[in-house]
Input
Amino acid sequence: MFDNATLKLQVDPLILSALREDISQEDVSTNSVMPTYTKGEVELICKQDGILCGIQVFQRVFSLIDDTTEFELFYKDGDEIKKGQLIAKVTGDIRVLLSGERTALNYLQRMSGIATYTSQVAELLKGSNTTLLDTRKTTPNNRIFEKYSVKVGGGSNHRYNLSDGVMLKDNHIGAAGSIKKAVQMARDYAPFVRKIEVEVENMDMVKEAIDAKADIIMLDNMNHEQIKEAMEYINKRAEVEVSGNVTKENIAVLTDLGVDYISSGALTHSAPILDLSLKNLHAI
Output
């Protein structure tokens, strides 16, 4: 759950932007059929098994339009939900319920979908000492929601943004001239509290990263045998992250390698939404 400061400073402006995108002037359809205040109630129904995530954001959409909107919640973030279950009831001005419906569901379906997919991937790593990480491959202006959803689903967050840590990828290395130069320049520039991670693609780069005393070595797009060889060479002299096209379909083959981290952009960029719906709207 987002704390009050995060909610007001980081989350609310994004929700308001989404609402403005959907209501540039007025909700013509709603104002046509509901010209004046009428109190009503609508039910949030689960239409697909999964992990619930984003119920606080769902609520906030309606509350930002009208803070008198009321909610009765039967499940919380992280709960397993089943097709056909009643998740919540929303009570308030019917015009608010109609106008906020799509934006609220867009957040809730997307966030629940990411949490569900992450949970399925994390399950495949159970019993190993490998931490599942997300990446920065997130939807613009939705990173705070998507990375939160990964945590609810049982994954962990890699760096939040470019200010959050040093990761020297292929183009950084190319700009510096070599891994050794890139690492040294990063050590000279970055505060001592930050670890330095280096992305490598072959054994020569692994050896150079070890010589440069990188803190974390990311093995990018290597096959099983290449990763095994790299792990034997690194021999705990650095932490090891594996990345590159890691999905629910292929992550299981990496569990025997003893890597510290596996990062997967698929957690955020390829998770399907979870089907949820607002139904049975009626006046009360």
The first helix runs from residue 4 to 22. The mean pLDDT is 96. The chain has ten helices and twelve strands. Residues 145 and 199 are 27 Å apart (CA to CA).
